[in-house]
């Protein structure tokens, strides 16, 4: 489990630890870890530390101090270290230590520095940036030259207390680094310009290949869009653990955590003990939704699946899944619903069911039961227009994408994407439900907004295709029917769903240690478009929702 703590909790833990250790000890621990990671990267990418060119983008605070002391350690190992001083001052001790080790400092003044001249950065061709400003000579050319020839760039501009996008000259320095070919960018603690708590990126920000974070993970390192700026995250232990106020604010389960959660049949299991799932999905128009949700449920471990749908969808499902027990609907007539369906232990309602008044009546009937209910797709649209349906006393799992959550909350979907954690928590509180917000990083907010948010990172961009959400709904519903609690069922389903997609996209040959963090043979992703740790589009192929279903058994075996 990767636990992440808010800035406030990190600050409190740092203060408690600093009260019992010598002055500067925490910064030295952080610097040692940062330097160690950078040295390993230089050996892997440039073949050496001695003679390698390292550029440090340094701000005025302790984050800059961490980077400066790390630069001192690299300089003493023979690296050529240059500091680009982005503000009016540097961390005094770090600056002295670095220059004593042979490093050099180039000052870049802030825009309101009255003592600085302002040479032009003409020729940089960096859209959306301003000017970097210099002090007394052509610092613009010198900065470009140093950054452009670097083997490794350390981002020490802002720490975890920063908010909003980068201002000048930080924004231009970040853009220069981002446009440098061949240099690895390493962020100290957090990429400058991203929000540590929310994961929001509200303007220009550093895009790192690697982030070396200190003491604990921060929520923004787990959640997009900030996570996309962080690259591979390495955690350096500086002794904060005993001082962090539990519980964490966010948690990212790993393979071992999921393996412990997955329900496993025993010798005494039968189809009822393994869980019976009811599916209110599909229609004569949307037969695919019924097929895909059913496929996810059948391969999710439920002992029995009972499908309630219309005749055309029912016929399609019978051809593929003869083991499913089907109740056919027919307009306003047909069986009493849900009384005549038979015994179920959880419901999935929504995918392809339609949004007319009859659909609303059936959804309301499901929500009126005392059973766990997962609501997706059309069901979410109905709730947005029939707000009285929620909250309910029984367990409820909502599985929206950003557009659907925007409709539920009356929020701009773009803002939901930008602040995923915040909006998922808000919806969980407002609707009295567990909310699984689908996306590049799936966020699971437990009901009530008190327990840690769970974050899944196994997804792949290849999942952005029609029908994959229906598969996820069926899979999560099957886990609910087996007795799992809402947050655990949601995060387990998201993990297995993402892993199955990666396996399908890779032709079934994805490495079971896909989540490993080993330097040997690493390929870098992101700024140069190369393959990388976490880049599951390179070396893989497009997939459809049915491919995800077929890969689910292998995902269960690997978990």
Automatic annotation (TrEMBL):
Which residues are recorded as binding AMP?
438-442, 469
Q: Which residues form the signal peptide?
A: none
Cofactors that this protein relies on: Mg(2+); K(+)
- Annotated membrane-spanning segments are none
Q: Which residues form a coiled coil?
A: none
- Span list, region Disordered: 110-135
A Gene Ontology molecular function term of the record: ATP binding
GO BP, one annotated term: metabolite repair
Catalyzed reactions per annotation? (6R)-NADPHX = (6S)-NADPHX; (6R)-NADHX = (6S)-NADHX; (6S)-NADPHX + ADP = AMP + phosphate + NADPH + H(+); (6S)-NADHX + ADP = AMP + phosphate + NADH + H(+)
Q: How is the cofactor bound?
A: Binds 1 potassium ion per subunit.
Please give the subunit comment from the record.
Answer: Homotetramer.
Entry similarity comment: In the C-terminal section; belongs to the NnrD/CARKD family. In the N-terminal section; belongs to the NnrE/AIBP family.
| Record protein name field | Bifunctional NAD(P)H-hydrate repair enzyme
Organism (species): Trebonia kvetii
Lineage per the UniProt record: Bacteria, Bacillati, Actinomycetota, Actinomycetes, Streptosporangiales
